[in-house]
Amino acid sequence: MNARAETIGQLVSYKRAWLQCQFCLVPMLGFFEPCYESGKPERNLINLVDGQPFAVAGLWRSWGEEDGSQTYSFTQITINADNHPLMRRMHKPGDEKRNLVIIHEAGYNDWLTNRDIELARTFLQNYPAEQMQAIPTPLKPDPPVTDSLF
């Protein structure tokens, strides 16, 4: 599930975590987005040009269960990418283009320890396109199912 930066402080599902600065980082090697430049959706792996892991800005929240245990969840934060040279190529034509908020490694601690939502908003920027790449990554077809167990 993704949270739109533009409404993160307004929607019931994210407002409390945002106002309480419950920031987290979501580590990843890449994420997948559909590119429609050929006229049909083609799966692309979006990652960093140098192939290094990175982290996406997120929010976490928790709630109590009936048995007294705690359950935790997180959401990734997205921003508009209509003008981002790479991410504007993704998603259906005519749809708003979105991008995950990639946090520069030097800013990890600042994001996690920040307790000022106005300062947090300064992190919500598109990552430089020249440091990102899209690699066509079609899904492999499932192997055929056979009736025989032997």
Summarize the structure.
The chain has 150 residues and is mainly beta. The chain is built from three helices and nine strands; from the N terminus they run βαβββββββααβ.
Topology record:
Layout: E1 2-4, H1 12-19, E2 23-28, E3 31-35, E4 42-48, E5 54-64, E6 70-80, E7 98-100, E8 102-103, H2 108-113, H3 117-121, E9 132-136
Parallel strand pairs: 1-6
Antiparallel strand pairs: 2-5, 3-4, 4-9, 5-6, 5-8, 6-7
Annotation keywords:
150 residues, mainly beta, hypothetical protein yedk fold, six-stranded mixed sheet, three-stranded antiparallel sheet, 3 helices
How far from one another are the termini? 42 Å
- Oligomeric grouping of the chains: single chain
What is the CATH C level class, in words? Alpha Beta
Overall residue-averaged pLDDT value: 94
Helix coverage percent of residues?
10-25%
Gross CATH architecture = Alpha-Beta Complex
The global form is: globular
Biggest β-sheet, characterized?
6 strands, mixed
Task: Work out the count of structural domains.
Answer: 1
The counted number of beta strands is 9
The Rg value, from CA coordinates, equals 18 Å
Look at the helices and sheets and give the structural class. mainly beta
CATH homologous superfamily, by name? SOS response associated peptidase-like
Number of helices: 3
- Give the SSE order as H and E letters: EHEEEEEEEHHE
Strand content: 35-45%
